[in-house]
Each structure stands twice: as structure tokens, then as C-alpha cells.
Amino acid sequence: MDEPSSAIADAEIEVLFKQIFQLRDQGVAILYITHKMDEIFRIADEITIIRDGKWIESGPASGYDANKLVALMVGREITNVFPKEHDIPISDVVLEVRNLTQEKADGGHFRDISFQLRGGEILGFSGLVGAGRSELMRAIFGLDRFTSGEVYLNGKKLNIHHTSDAVREGIAMITEDRKGYGLVLDRSIHDNVSLVNLDKFTRSGLVNDNMIDKAVDEVVKLLRIKIVNQNVSVSTLSGGNQQKVVLAKWLIGDVKVMIMDEPTRGIDVGAKSEIHKLMCRFAREGMAIIMISSELSEILGMSDRVVVMQEGRMNGILDRNEATQERIMALATRGITTEWIK
């Protein structure tokens, strides 16, 4: 089972684990690949660590704790997986969404969504699969159309009909499917980073490759992307480095709002920590960040406030000091019975 819980909610994970335990009791041998520490210690009898394509160590699960396991996975000790800095100043409202609605034949993906996002803030969006979080962000970014409502940036009403309109205004988005929407896998890092920014590297109708080389070198160094050179294919990189390339292409422009949909899905704990540190750095520089995550630990560890959605509606907004796993799940499952998972 290769990352079987990466795209399902907590309730479905409980069902998955129940089936795994039943298969185990029937004598079935299971190989379970995951980057989630809590899953490893909950279901594993034996643990094998692989790093950079090489076997590192194997042993009974009882011989490991989270710190030891993380250190073996990344080759160094990580003392704080969620390095959220609480002293980052939160400034004025940068993005405001008013009564945004997307009507569909099946009843609509989201309805009457309103929220504000401030400079320096990381606003987390939580909810079960199908809550409408990704659909909402796709509409704000211009990937999909919304039926009614308004979006404001620094007090200016936006008319976003296409992604180019959002990019022009300083809104960027890292989609949950980096391979399907975020990257051109068979092209180089040089090409992927420059594609969104060709207008910045064009003079008299000609693309200046020297300008691109310099800009790419700067973001590669900033994000600590591990590459041999700019011309290697993105498909050859690890998941964490691919995610950094997606991030790199936006950092060349003037980004005011960064939408990050499952920014650490499918990457190892070392890369996760680096992405989290970069988020804190961008927030400290005044960027306003929206983070969608299906991992409650990530939501609680990185968010200044948490918006909880259910079936296309907002059920509440929690400040960091009042957000708990129990309160988030209560809002995400309001009106839904969970007896079936017991």
C-alpha cells in the first residue's frame, strides 16, 4: 500500500486501518509506505527506512521513536516539524472574499463563502474530502468560474476570468496535484520556472536566457533545490524538490497572496519541514498565505486561523488559540453521524 491515506479524511483512514488489521489477523503480509509518523507507529510491526534510494535500517517498531525515525529518514535531526513563528506581525486585510458561490447541476461545490486574509497570516482551510476547499481556491485563482460573489485585493474589486488575471494581480496557487497541474514533467527546471514569467524575461520580442539563468539560480539557492544543473528534467527529482520547483516559479514574480493546496502531500518529513520554514519566511516578509491541508497536525501547527468547511459551506473560523482537533472535527462533521466507523 503506497501512501493509501494521502487523499482521504480521518474517518476513511479509520476504515482503512480496520481493514488492514483484519487482513493482518487473516495472515496477510502488508507493506505500507507512508511519510506520516502517527500511522507508522499505529500499525507497523517492523519498520524499514529508505533514503535517496538506499536501504538505511530495519527493525521492530518498538525500537524507534519519532525523533529517531525522522533523523534516519532525512539524515539529520529535525527538532521541530512545524516551525510556526508566532511573533510574525499580522497586518491589514490583503484579500477579501464576499459571498462567493459556485452553482452546479449537482447542487453546487460551494455557497456563500466569505472570509478575510491579512498580510503575514497563514489561514488554514480544513474539512473532510469533498468539503469544497479546493474548488473554492480554484475559483479564486481563475481555474474555474464562480456564479456569484466578489473578490477584493487590497480593497480593489477583481474581475478574474482566467488564471492570467489572478497572476497579474499578484495571486499565485500551488495545486494539490503538482504533477498534473503544477509542472511540465518532461521539461527542465529552467523551463518550468520561466514559463509563468516569460514576459519578465522578454526584451524586444526575444526571450533572454541569461536573465532566466540568473533568476533560476537565485530561487534554486533560496529554496535549496537539489539539482545537478538547470537543464535536468523535473521528472527526475524527488517529490520534495518537485514541490519546491512549483513554488520557485511563483517567487520570481510579485506575489501578494499564495494559495497552497496540500503543499506537503507525498513528500518526506525533511522536505515538509523546509516547506514550512519557507512559509514562515514568506509570511514574515508580508505575504498572505492560504493553506489547505488534510492533515490536522499541519493545520494546527501552521495556521494563525482555521476556516472549517463542510459540503461547500463554511461552518466556522477558529483562532489559533481556540483551534483543537476536536473542535475542528466537530465543525467539519456537523450534522453527520460517525457511528458507521466504529
Characterise the protein shown here.
This protein is of the alpha/beta class and 342 residues long. The chain is built from twelve helices and 14 strands. The protein has a six-stranded mixed β-sheet with strand order 8-11-12-5-13-14, sandwiched between helices. Strands 4-3-6-7 form a four-stranded antiparallel β-sheet, with helices on one face. A two-stranded antiparallel ribbon has the order 1-2. A hairpin with a 7-residue loop joins β3 (93-102) and β4. It is globular and about 65 Å long.
- Radius of gyration equals 21 Å
From the spread of the alpha carbons, the general shape counts as globular
**What's the mean pLDDT score?**
86
Question: How much strand?
Answer: 15-25%
Distance between the termini: 23 Å
Which key terms come to mind for this protein?
342 residues, 6-stranded mixed sheet, disordered C terminus
Present the secondary structure layout.
Elements lengths: L9 H16 L11 H7 L2 E6 L2 E7 L5 H9 L18 E10 L7 E9 L3 E5 L6 H9 L6 E6 L2 E2 L5 H7 L1 E4 L3 H5 L6 H7 L6 E2 L2 E2 L1 H15 L15 H13 L5 E5 L7 H16 L3 E5 L3 H7 L2 E6 L2 E7 L5 H8 L10
Provide a quick synopsis of the model.
The protein is an alpha/beta fold and 342 residues long.
